[in-house]
Amino acid sequence: MPVSGQGPYDDQNIFARILRGEIPSRRVYEDEWAVAFHDIAPQAPVHVLVIPRGRYVALTDFVATAPDAEIAGFFRAVGHVARELGLEQPGYRVLSNMGVHAGQEVPHLHVHLFGGAALGPMLVKA
Ligand code: AMP
User: Fold this and answer.
1) pTM
2) Residue to mutate (ligand 1; options 105, 108, 109; most atoms within 8 A of CB)
3) Domain boundaries, position 62
């Protein structure tokens, strides 16, 4: 269900197509709730995307409408992937873009995991 400020979910978005196996991806993890794969244009030595299997545009509609078990399952998967990739020490960054001001390109909720090197400032100052 869309939330104010977001359009309806587009079943043809690229991550929906990755979930259906129509487009290849380099998967690193999958479970009942989530799929994780390498970003096609990595911005850090490790740059992995974690997406829910469900049809959510972004964090806003996910937390507003997803069942509790799905929310828990998704965020547990994020933590699991970070651990499995060996990112916990010496650390990593989690980021999720929502909407135009954040520059969200793909309208299916995704969490970026960045790691493998010191990542620098959180945001480039305007
Ligand atoms: P965002 O700007 O937060 O929406 O991020 C979208 C991300 O998806 C970008 O980092 C892209 O490099 C990545 N991306 C786009 N197409 C693909 C693809 N086919 N496989 C993996 N990553 C992709």
Assistant:
1) 0.96
2) 105
3) 24-115
